[in-house]
Amino acid sequence: MSGSGGTDVSGSGGTVATAEFAAVARLDELLGDPWRVENVYGFAAGVERDERGYFPHAFAARLDSVDFPLAYLPPSLGGTLRGLDETLLLVRVAARRDAALMPATLLSCSAVLTVLAAGSDEQAKTVADWVQEGRTIAFALSEEQAGSDVLAGEARLDPTGDGYRLWGRKWLVGRGATADAVVVVARTAERGPAAFTAVLLGPRELAHRVGREPAQTVTGMRGIDFADLVFEGTPVPRAAVIGAVGGGLAGAMRAQQVVRLLSTGACLATADTALRTALRFTRDRRVGGVRVADTGYGSRELAVAAAELFAADLLSLTAARYVHLSPGTFGLCSSVVKRVATRLTSSSIARSRTLLGARAVLVHGPGAVLDKARRDNEIVESIDTSPFGVLRAIAVQLPGYATALAPGDTPAPDPGSASLFAFGAPLPDLDPAALDLSARPKDLVLLGFAEQAEDTARRMAAGGDERGGDLVRELRAALDDTFATAAEAQKDRARGLGASAELLDLAERCCLLYAGAAAVLAWRAHPERGLYGDEPGGSGWLTSVLAVLLALADGRDPRQAASELAPAVRALTRLDAAGLLFTALPVQLSDGGPESEEGDETT
What we know:
12 strands; 3-stranded mixed β-sheet; alpha+beta; 10% strand; 4-stranded antiparallel β-sheet
């Protein structure tokens, strides 16, 4: 990673190096101040495109000129990937301006990663070359009648003398109306996960007996075509099969582990924009002469929204390193990060929106910026895997951890766990072929937290944060209870469908607790520097995050944890004052800020 100087974070107690993510800061500087109305890469331009349903051509071209679409492609194939933690932040500084930039520039990742996970070297080179040439490769898996049940797909691949014929309709294919190529998963047998095969269709195949339906209108990321593809006996050569016949669904599901992670970049980007907009608005508006940000209500809402965003941020950064370090055990983390990021950023945006008062409903100004962020964020929840599908994937893994993390045990840490939270540090090459779909209880975050929870609690208490130490112990106990309850629910066959519903609820709870475990380990891994602009060893932000996550996991209103919330809003204010992205390590932004609207708020 190339380096740069330091950034002084006001009130943080010192200067913090920004070398880890210097490329991210350079990209944001290249795109300019997003608050400037005349900036074609800014918020106002994004809102205008959204209103008209325009594709972001100029913005996408600017990103193409600096190889942004290659940020997930390994260097061995001509890409610029150094680490997915850096890639995730590159996505965030671009997508915070307009989340439609993700499908406009990175949509090929689902198809490409499926090829890298299951295809041949020749196929990998082909798709990499297409991406470098600026071509778009769509991914066609979903079917309208099947919904989230991919095993119910009906599109079929029938063998012929010299290959196959492809029949059926694929639903809401991103860039389906304009893609140059497509990876299609279709049925080659009657039943079971091994009944599906993936094929790579290039421009030549798409020119024969393939219908492209008009793009369907969607609520967010407007301007991106989501269209149905209709295959009417499309000729498919044998060489187009990705991997083995019958292995298409497995290959696609392995690739989706990385795609789910990358999609969190849009969640975090939209939440950053919404919260930054709300923070600046509440500092400028007054109620009875008091800034909205300083009122009890305003400060509390900002604090909870910040804690939610911080929790999602840390888990996403952790997951981005995890997939490099231990792809074979990444499966659980992949599902958890998708659910956590979508749920917590959606909540953070909703809280931000309430702080705008009546201006939240206006189609111009800060309300319009925040409304677009909200709608774009909502699209991400179902763009690759539905919430039900994500929770179901988590639920089946929970019972195994009742034994693996039994109280009193000291699990052996994985060799890769030492690097898991070294955000920005060099990583081994990404190996999509090593991704695994098994449900073995070997998750690095859960095992690492179980091993280090008690020692971490003592460290926090010794540093003067006794409440933080207590929350770490509460988190460990809550995880133990969740896994034990899941094991009982699985055993009790008499519960039938009720047990299934209970496991899904436990999966939701586990996601929140898992995010807390990642936050604890991230704090522990950085004793020499403060995260979120805090002083070295500062744990106030962590106490806020744990208080919010534990409240949500227990079904309580996190706003009731008033005594633990103040550090989160202080961290948020520090980061914005220093012009930094709302992320753990400092990433300098080019924001100058909107013009002040100082006045008295009466609505």
